[in-house]
Amino acid sequence: METPFPPFEPNGPDDSARGPRLREIPLRLVFPNLITILAICAGLTGIRLAFENRYELAVSMVLLAAFLDGIDGRVARLMKATSKFGAQMDSLADIVNFGVAPALVVYVFALDQARSLGWIAALIYAIAAGLRLARFNVMAERENKASWQSEYFVGVPAPAGAMLVLLPVYLGFLGLATDRTFAYLSSIYTVLIAFLLISRLPVWSGKAEGNRLRRDLVLPMMLGVVLYVALLMSYTWEVMVFTVAAYLISLPFGARKWRRKYGTLTIEEPGIGDDDIGRHI
Questions:
Q1: Within a domain: residue 232?
Q2: In whole angstroms, how large is the CA radius of gyration of the chain?
Q3: CATH code for the domain in which residue 103 is found
Q4: Inter-axis angle of helices 158-165 and 116-141, to 10 degrees?
Q5: Model confidence over 83-133: pLDDT tens digits?
Q6: Residue 160 lies in a domain
Q7: pLDDT, tens only, 223-254
């Protein structure tokens, strides 16, 4: 049997016949996507831990997922590694970590005692989180953005919604009886948070470029952050309840500031128009 030899090519090898080569991707482009994947893993693990009745670990994983999901975009911009693929991955992670995971953890911990009403409340929250994220993506894709978008959110942002909706779990960890009455009240609260997500309430974002801190307040602010973190590590659930209460109390003040500046109670500019919906279906 004759051994086959490659054909003689007088002009060198013909690379066009070998098919496309795999393009090498810089590692800095992959790193933000790894953070997003870790966030999805944390959110899904939180769901599993909730079904195993390991609630404190479940909530910790959901909060970790929210933290990771909140920094992946900033890491990508810092490393100049933004991409369309990363944006799509981030959107998928958002609906898992800010919508599905918190809803299921709250349902397993408290809402299931309200039977179908508890499940309906969990569904409403998860769907509201998805609608909130879709509206955010549509507004972010617009070429001409309103000046107020750098200062205000339209409705409560999804990461904050995930933190807020877990309030019944925090209270349960502090010893509050999780009976049927608690389940019904938690269901009403869950629907309320869902409404805040899809509302047109102006929520101050703190991202305005004009916001500056006086030099004499820098050190006190840094000490305040250190104190908050230290208390969070020592009195986790008490601090989380305080954080939720402080955030909810701050919402009317943000709306009041908006009214003084723009004269309305809600953001009247449409977030999603007919063209936006048609283009994304």
A1: yes
A2: 24
A3: 1.20.120.1760
A4: 160
A5: 777 777 777 888 888 899 999 999 999 999 998 999 999 999 999 999 988
A6: yes
A7: 988 999 899 889 999 999 999 999 999 888 88
Residue 112 domain-assigned (yes or no): yes
Q: Is 256 a residue whose pLDDT tops 70?
A: yes
In a domain, 12, yes or no: no
Place of tokens 């997922």: 65
Angstrom distance (rounded) from CA 222 to CA 210: 20
Task: Give the number of domains in the chain.
Answer: 1
From the list 183, 191, 197, 189, the residue with the least C-alpha distance to 95 is 197
Q: What are phi and psi of 4, to 5 degrees?
A: -70, 140
Residue numbers of the domain that contains 107: 27-139+150-208+215-263
Tokens of 47: 């769901």
Q: What is the pTM of this model?
A: 0.80
Task: Please choose, from the candidates 60, 67, 62, 63, the residue with its C-alpha nearest in 3D space to the C-alpha of residue 43.
Answer: 62
